[in-house]
Amino acid sequence: MKFPDKEPIIEYTHELRSRYGETDRMGYVYYGRYLEYFEVARTEMIRSYGLSYREMEESGVMLPVIHTEIEYKMPILYDEKMQIKVMVFDVPSVRLQTFYEVTTEDSDSIHILGEVSLCFMDAESRRPCRAPENFINKITQ
Questions:
Q1: Buried b (16+ CB within 10 A) or exposed e, 126-139
Q2: How far, in Å, CA of 115 to CA of 67, rounded?
Q3: What burial letters (b/e) apply to 47-86, b meaning 16+ CB within 10 Å?
Q4: Which domains does the chain possess?
């Protein structure tokens, strides 16, 4: 997985602790959970700018996922505290491309790398649309 070779315009870190029900028989966080963790971190990143998914959807703009990619480097175990860093490198137009690094307090290494691309979509027509102006204004201030 290749991250853009420049400084992110947004960098936000969300802390989350792995729970027992999210682990597999080996005690590792189940691989499918990481997309949920990315969603939580992305939602909180957007909220940190005074925006919310709910308000965006109520205004008629949806943000479905169109691409995901995950690279598993080291497992995360039950009850480990994770730092999920969300990075955005480009101002979105129709697409919001987010990148993720997941680390823990117990290791200096990156456990998980990820990328999730979302598309701004008009809720009524179900066609791609430009990112809402207030979204762009808030994240570029």
A1: eeebebbeebeeeb
A2: 8
A3: eebebeeeebeeeebbbeeeeeebeeeeebebebebebbb
A4: 10-139 (3.10.129.10)
Q: Give me the torsion for CA of 67, 93, 42, 85, rounded to 10°.
A: 90
CA distances from 136 to 11, 43, 96, 130 (A): 15, 16, 11, 10
Encoding tokens for residue 65? Answer: 């996922």
Q: pLDDT tens string for the chain (141 positions)?
A: 899 999 999 999 999 999 999 999 999 999 999 999 999 999 999 999 999 889 999 999 999 999 999 999 999 999 999 999 999 999 999 999 999 999 998 888 999 999 999 999 999 999 999 999 999 999 998
